[in-house]
Amino acid sequence: MNRKENFIAGFVKENPVFGLYLGLCSALAISTTLDNAIGMGLCVTLILTASNMIISAIRKITPDEIRIPVYIVVIASLVSAVEMLMAAFMPQLYANLGVFISLIVVNCIILGRAEAFASKNGILDSALDGIGMGLGYTFSLLLISFVREFLATASWTITNPFNNQVILHVGLSFLEPFKISMFSTSTGAFLTFACFAALFAVLKNKPAKKEKKEAK
Amino acid sequence: MKKIIHLTVFLAVVGALSAGVLSYVNDLTAPIIEAQKLAAVKESLEVLYPGANFSELSTEADETGLVSAAYKAEGKGYIYSVQVVGYNSSTPIDFMMSIDNDGTISGYVVLTQQETNGIGSRVADDEFKNTVVGKGINDSISTLSGATVSSTAVVKGINAAKALFGAQAGVSVDTPSDPVVTTPVYTLSDDYSGNSATVVSVDGNTYTVTSTGFPGNSANEYAIVVENGAIVSVTNTVFGDTAGIGNPAVSEDALSSYVGATLTSEVDAVSGSTFTSKSVFAALQAALKNAAGESTDADTDTGASTDNTTVEGDSYTATAFGFGGDVTVTVVLNGSDIVDVKVVGDKETSGIGTNAIDKLPAAIVAADSADVDVVSGATITSTAILEAVQEILDQAQ
Amino acid sequence: MAELFSMAIAAVLINNIILTKFFGMCPFLGVSKKTSSAVGMGVAVIFVIMGASIITYFLYHGVLVTLGIEYMQLITFILVIASFVQFTEMFIKKFSPALYKSLGIYLPLITTNCAVLYVAKDNITQNYGFVEMLVNSFSVPLGFLLVLYIFSCMRERLDTADTPNAWKGNPVALVAAALMALAFSGFAGLV
After folding, report:
1. Which of A21, A88, B74, C81 is least buried, going by the fewest C-beta atoms within 10 A?
2. Which residue on chain C is closest to B91 by alpha carbon?
3. pTM for the complete prediction?
């Protein structure tokens, strides 16, 4: 598999959220609005890329027996640092995402990629893998929140996390009376997620079937 | 062994490195986070000291733990954010107060409170605010009578803020004594009509009296012994007030303190259970007045419905409230035997209540008592008829 | 006492950790295919959360606050949880092989169960006293066990149901979870 394929795999085939069911807690909880999805997605991408690079860099000197604790310390430090930086520079986003930032530590995607990829590959490859997987995660969050925010509020809003100014606001006011506020609750999260999971199951199986046919 | 040392050292180095990085980031971001927190509360600080420069102070010197934040308004004074638990234990009373540099309390703002409306909530009213603002740090602040629990909590919070002010402004502050409770003086001749005391029964010199305490609660009942115009003993027989709050007012200690009281005596309310205490006073008053032969506002008759019954020879008439209106029952007695029963009730539902009016009289005559089964489906009308009959029988005896 | 009770009710039913906060989603989908494994996982989670919460509580108030290094909270907590899980596993393996057989396989999975870290952190951010902390650390995973058990019962039925191909497995289970969340939202006015 070349780098490009590797990079793209994170979006559909190996999509961490819909395909592998990783990092679900945050994916469901914060996907109420696009803002949160972007913020959380970029946070995870940043941490994932950095942790992949650091772990890849120290992979040769890390004793095998204690690699998991070492990974955990590296990831926890990165998360703590990002948490403090966000509290300082993006307070609104920090308040919205709340405890989910610190729970990135136990987000299976990060430890999973460290173990499965970064501990065996070079720094550059690991960084690309981190970005790809992170963007795949962001992409999934965006999909869910895109649907949920629209169904719950009949509009989309994106704000600049640094100064709280609205960058983009698309509202279809004639749909306002039909908005379904249930989609901002946990029920809506499960429902939206279930639909996407089914959709991705179809997408994932399609190419496989084609190959089979060709083989015949 | 060498391996273990290697592993430990490696882990320690990783841990130390990350601790170093984090402490650097922490140093970098802590002041910014601090500044942002200040910006968030600035609006409420501006209310107390408009246009001042604020900086946050530590609240470590506060021993009570009630002061959650302290701010210094440059050149003007200090602001304290205080949370105290009053009557509502789930939502604390959250208030801010400012103390000028010269030690005068210059502002008091209640931010949130969920105390009982009209009672504890008075700590947020101007009446209480005016007793706080303008006081010096060594003046004591009175609590509100009738809202003792809430206001005592607030005063404790104010005292904590004062003590912290003393430490931070370098002023010596007297250790405030516990909140001064201004106990209003009650006498048994006061007006307690709000408690609607009723003498339910009199047995010798023992009076059974009901009276309500906290508005909306059910009535308390007391057995009161009166001799020569003074109370000999008081016991609480039925307690209908708020459990846990009103109880102290009817404790044996509290009640025994009223022994010897006369209509002109001054009595003490139990602080924190003022409402229930007042119900005791109302009951004492009713018993004393009754003993003195005065009629109280309350209806002291034991047979509550005598007026209701009219007698004409052997024929007795009584009314009772049925489903739609009064049901009038006329009973003809021969000695103690029921000879005839007539029921008139034109307000009862036709086909339902009228069923009872049709059927019951014969049943009552047959049974020779009011102890007959109600007509099913017409229970309310039946019960009314039977009540009226019973009343007549009681009366005739 | 009444307060602690309503706190427990709120943690179990109203603010259920899975259905309203989505913590512990991985085991929720992963080990809910059989009722027996769901109960095993639930019990193991109660045990680990209780243990880890008590340790982190004392560590935070005793060490981190005293030294003024609250920012090391996350690292400390996650290491405590990881090693607590490891020790528990070793301990059970040695002293009760039967228990290990039924619980042991779930233990390693718990390290990455965000519910554990969440409860440990929540006890600190909510400023709980010791007793409140104990109640919270027991009732939150109890809610986890309850929902996991109900969910596994539904999944056993779903397995035999005729579902479209794309919806087989997790997607249809998620729809069931959505309905369950809707049902649990009815508890909202309880306390």
Report:
1. B74
2. C3
3. 0.60
